[in-house]
Each structure stands twice: as C-alpha cells, then as structure tokens.
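Researcher: I need the complex structure. Ligand is flavin-adenine dinucleotide. Inputs:
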Amino acid sequence: MSGPGVRTVAVVGGGPAGAFCALELARLLPDVTVDLYDREDRGPGAGIVLADEVARQVRAVHPEALRLPESAYATWDETITSIDGERIPSGAFGMSGISRHVFHEHVRTLAARRPNVRLIRRTVTATPEPADLVVLADGAGSVLRQQRAEQFGTSVTAGATRYLWLSTPTVLEPCFLIKEFGPGPLVVHAYPHAAGESTFIVEADPGTLTALGLLDRPAAEAERELATIFRAELGGAPLTARTAGWQAFRTVVNRRWSAGRTVLAGDAAHTVHFSTGSGTALAIDDALCLARSVAAHDDPLDAVAEYDSVRRPIAERMQAEAAESTAWFEQFCRGERLHGHQTVFALRSRRAANTFSRLRERDPEFVARTVARLAGHPTDAEPVDVPLTVGRVRLGHRLVALERRDGRCVLRGADGTQAVGLVVDRTPDGLLPGIDFLAVRARPEGGRVTRSAPAARIRSQSGLPIALLVDEELPRDEANTLIAAARTDLVALP
Ligand SMILES: Cc1cc2nc3c(=O)[nH]c(=O)nc-3n(C[C@H](O)[C@H](O)[C@H](O)COP(=O)(O)OP(=O)(O)OC[C@H]3O[C@@H](n4cnc5c(N)ncnc54)[C@H](O)[C@@H]3O)c2cc1C
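Model: Output:
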C-alpha cells in the first residue's frame, strides 16, 4: 500500500509509458485513483518491432497486454538485407511486428477496464490539477514538458537524416533494402506488422532526397514516387505515409526527470533512435519502475527520487548506444561505398553487444559467408588472419607493426618489401603518388572503437586500405569486428 502521500495520479499520454503506468498502479494500489488522458486522434506510426525477450518480460507482469489475435502479429527469425539487388540473409533472433496503433489502443483499453482507472479522451494543454502525482508520458514532443523545459533541463537534438514512416497493405519479408542513387542510398527498414500489412520506413540523407526530388514534395506524391522506386520489392503495392512528411529523428534528453510532483516517463523523458528498436521496452520499464516506487514509498517525492536514480542511468546508457547507431546510419546515408556482406556485418555490429564472436555464435553461416567474401574463398580463419596485400607487401595477418615517422608509416613485409602509409584524419584531396595505405587514429574506450569512427568513411571515400592506429591494444574480438565490417583493413599494434 502507498502511504497517505498519493491518492490521485494524473497520467498524461496513453502510449506504452502512460498505459503501463496506469496498469501497474492499478495492480499494486487499488485505492489510488488514476486519470489517464489521451488525445483522440490516432497519432503517427505504422508498425513497431518487439524482441521476443521484451515480449517475455511484459508477459511475466501483464500477460493480457500481449493477448491479441494471432493475425495482429508477424514473427520472424531472419532478416534479408538487399544491397543493390544482392540478397544477404542474417539472423534477427526472435522478433515480432505489431501495429503501434493496435498495441497502444489495446493496453490503454486494458488500463481503462481497471475500476480505479479513468480514461479521459482529451488533448491536455496544461498540467491537470489537482493530483498528488502527475506523470507526463505524452511522447517525444511532450507539450507539457516543453512548458517547463528549464526545470527539466530539456534538450532536443534533430538527427541529420530524414525518415518517412509508411505502411503498405501487403506482407513483406523482414528486410533492410539499400538502394544506391549516386548522391547516397535510400535505406529502407521493412517488416510485416499484421496479417495483411507491413511497415516501410525510408531513411536517407537530405542531400539524397533533394537530388531525387523527394524532400519537398507533398506526401501523396512522395508516396507514389517511392512506390515506383520500390515497385519490385513491394510487388506493386501502394505506400501510405504515417507521419506528416519527412521527419528528422529527435533525440530528447532531460537532465532532471521530475519537477516537484511532476515526473517524466517514456519518450517524454528520453528517446532512442528507432534503429535500436528499444523505445517501447524503455517506456514500459520506466512505467513499471515508477509505479513500483510509488507503491513502495509514503512520500511521492521519495518515490520520484528512487525512480530517477534507477531509470535515468539506464536510459542514458541506452541513449549513448543509440547515438552510435544513429551516427553510423547518418554516415552510411552520406554515401559510404557498399561492400555486400561486410556492409551487412557493419549494420549488425553497430550495437556494442554484437561483436564478431557473438554474431558468429548466433549466426555462424552469415559470419562464415562474410569472412569468405573477405578472403575470396571459404575459410576457417578469423578476419585478423585473412591475408592481404598492401602495395607490394603480402601480409599473412592484419595485426601489424608500423614504423612511424614524420606523419608517415612504413609497413615491412617478411621478404623485405615495404609499403608506405600516410597518417590522416580526413579523406585526402586528390591522388597520393607513392602512398599505399592511409593510417587513421582511433581512441578506443574500454577496448572498443566507436562505430562511427572516421576510418570507415575515409576508407570508403579514398578506396585505399586503412590501418587503424590505436593507443592501446585492442581485444582480438574487437579487431575481428572492425575488419569484418570493413571499418578498417589493418589494426596497427600500439
Ligand atoms: C519511425 C519510428 C519507428 C519506431 N520503431 C520502434 C520499434 O520498432 N520498436 C520500439 O520498441 N520502438 C520503436 N519506436 C519508438 C516507440 O514508438 C516509442 O519509444 C514509444 O512509443 C514510446 O512510448 P511513450 O508512451 O513514451 O510515447 P508515445 O508512444 O509517443 O505515446 C504518447 C501518447 O501521448 C498522447 N499524447 C501526446 N500529447 C498529448 C496531449 N497533449 N494530451 C493527451 N495525450 C497526448 C499520444 O496520443 C500518445 O498516445 C519507433 C519510433 C519511431 C519514430
């Protein structure tokens, strides 16, 4: 039971954060009255992906939250990445697609069935009064948070790419589609989210969209044009935009998650780029933690302080990881050269946990094919042991010692041959006579090189082999990950 401090809670926003907060409060505190406000319109978005792991955790607490007819889901274990027509399968390890609208409406309705929860369909424009605790769960664009931005220490940063969240009335295989168009690629993340419907998110650099005449077109024309560009992949099905035109992803950060008895949850508190597919899980976990803290403390301010101390570090960690994923996509959308399997490996390993050894454990066939492409033939060797010729030097492995002097490096072969490298921090202009490779510095943190380090871009733009100069020895697994993903060709020993 809660203490006398909380008798009434106003929750603004009936997405996963708000609805799960109401559900959990109702479960733990039947004496507390919860007003759950949600605006009447449907809101943006087509389908979302939930990992099986997340679904299991949700079912353990609120099994009814995922009890929907089978036709409301699509499930898969493999994703196809199509790079300019080449189809490369890789494991997705247990995923479900579901309509965002159907899922949100379902959990909202469940919450409203609890005797102590009242669902109020209204757009809230000012903090509802009076309530002992106010939860702002009104999403990334939270109007009520913006009204108190200074108190929350809010910053909102727009990403460099633009995306359009579309749906199509057909069942697509889960896939990444990468289509090169000169100025840069169009990257599509598509997956089914119901028996007869799929999500189709198109992401690209604004320069690419402008060059294709897509950026400033009315949504209906952009839909038609995209349906034409992807006619083969869509089987001729149409596309419908589920956002009001092209959007920049907004990363929301709040230095404080509470102001007195008003507290932030879900996307109102923090956003993580959709390429990580984890925004819904974070919103649900916030909600469960907040409700449990309220139930555990007499004073709502203690509850809010506990919630903040538990959830904020987790969200910050996820945001740091998502920032790397975002930066990788942004760099990629600016027009990195495509390397088939290695690009797919880079896509898969952009998250810290997905190292070479982990991916090999989970999807040995995909990793074996990636290394075979690197070597030019099937091999049991790891990427660091795949031979490479740089200039006239034939190397049997890729962890190398370099002699460094005056901004240059020399790589010596066992047979007395040598190759000359230039140390750079950006892509050099023009030709470089006498230079066989480029050496790029990277600063590993905790044995990891950030996935958006400039080496990959310089490699892609210059077409020359890259040696990564690191100031600490890299774990072999990390070196394998970087080479398999075409982020570098060699790793220089410090
Ligand atoms: C393109 C894209 C793809 C994504 N894909 C995935 C994915 O695959 N997997 C995943 O886990 N996450 C995904 N996400 C993120 C996910 O949608 C969010 O993280 C999640 O919905 C956050 O839940 P929330 O309850 O905090 O906010 P929201 O889901 O935004 O809910 C906010 C609610 O508040 C209501 N509201 C807003 N303002 C008011 C107001 N003034 N008055 C009353 N009600 C109001 C809205 O109607 C809405 O119901 C994606 C996001 C984007 C942009």
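Model: Summary of the prediction. The mean pLDDT is 92.
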